[in-house]
Amino acid sequence: EAQVTQNPRYLITVTGKKLTVTCSQNMNHEYMSWYRQDPGLGLRQIYYSMNVEVTDKGDVPEGYKVSRKEKRNFPLILESPSPNQTSLYFCASSLRPPGMGYGYTFGSGTRLTVV
Amino acid sequence: AQSVAQPEDQVNVAEGNPLTVKCTYSVSGNPYLFWYVQYPNRGLQFLLKYITGDNLVKGSYGFEAEFNKSQTSFHLKKPSALVSDSALYFCAVRDINTDKLIFGTGTRLQVFP
Fold first, then answer.
1. For residue A69, what is the DSSP state?
2. Which of these, A27, A38, A90, B97, has the minimum number of CB atoms within 10 Å of its CB?
3. A-proximal residues of B, 9-68, CB under 8 Å
4. pLDDT tens, position by position, B3-55
5. Bridge partners of A113?
6. In whole angstroms, how far apart are CA B106 and each of A31, B21, B35, B88, B94?
7. Nearest CA in chain A to B31
8. What's the gap between Cα A113 and its chain centre?
């Protein structure tokens, strides 16, 4: 089944403790992206990647890092999480940038709480 | 700058009645417009898109959307709502500079039995 898999689904952590949220897709997509979803703010893009070893900042990149060493994986790293990073996170992928009309497949989300 | 607006945080409709979820856009040039749906505890799913052609676009689950250039709108519609349509709906527009999607803030649709 074609899908985007995120792990973990739920995570509670403490301020300052580094964490990684994994994202993997099995569709050979070139474009991958991370979003955070907050009430009243919709989806905001954190980082995106056009292909292996090509990443770029989205609208809210502060406090996050990403890497794209393999085509299928696009982990999101929080080096020193803070409470304002408590949010619902989504990974998504598409063959090409989604604005070109290609289907965008989303993972099921990771609910992160930083205390 | 490109943007979309979803003026309603929530829309309530009775099952069997027609539903409309509103979206307006602001772009330079021809818009590429999209609707996505998010069911509880799930990621977003693609519903439909408008790129060019017929102003009435048909999508998944019986939904359709009407592109109106003069009113800069792309409202999502369904002739007869189902309780299972209850979800969060997002309108999105293509950023012509980056081909990324710019999402609206979402509209929660509640369909009552």
1. S
2. B97
3. 9, 32, 34, 36, 41-46, 49, 51
4. 999 999 999 999 999 999 999 999 988 899 999 999 988 889 999 999 988 89
5. A12
6. 23, 10, 10, 6, 16
7. A99
8. 15
